[in-house]
Write a structure and sequence with these properties.
single chain, 123 residues, alpha+beta, HIT family, subunit A, disordered N terminus, Protein kinase C inhibitor (HIT family), HIT-like, Histidine_triad_CS, catalytic activity, HIT-like_sf
């Protein structure tokens, strides 16, 4: 790990230096419960390889991006929220609220989500 990696909370969790509530793990991805949940189910799905944000991950390793989303779906199933629905969210860079610059997907569910709405114009 480089010095800049030492500041990366997720790399420290992956290395076992910091404990976390691991929900699911593959060779390339780890899913952990958020320590400050914004919904009854709030899990972070994190690639073990560090990419700064979702755009960088998509450009450099689209297969890993697909695995992150697939694992999120598996976690939603195991958490019992797949049928009722869930939200997947990437915060990309500071203005969007990203505070850890190691891409991670938020899986939120377990209650009716406010804010964004669906419908014909929104899909």
């Amino acid at each position: 790990m480089s010095d800049s990696d030492m500041d990366d909370l997720f790399l420290r969790i992956i290395a076992g230096e910091i404990s976390a509530d691991v929900v699911r793990e593959t060779d390339r991805v780890i899913a952990i419960r958020d320590i400050n949940p914004q919904a009854p189910t709030h899990v972070l799905v994190v690639p073990k390889t560090r990419y700064r944000n979702a755009a960088e991950l998509a450009a450099k390793d689209p297969d890993l991006l697909a695995e992150v989303v697939r694992v999120a779906g598996e976690v939603a199933e195991s958490e019992g929220i797949a049928e009722s629905g869930y939200r997947l969210l990437f915060n990309t860079n500071s203005d969007a609220g990203q505070t850890i610059f190691h891409v991670h997907l938020h899986l939120l569910g377990g209650e009716r989500m406010g804010g964004l709405t669906g419908g014909p114009a929104h899909g």
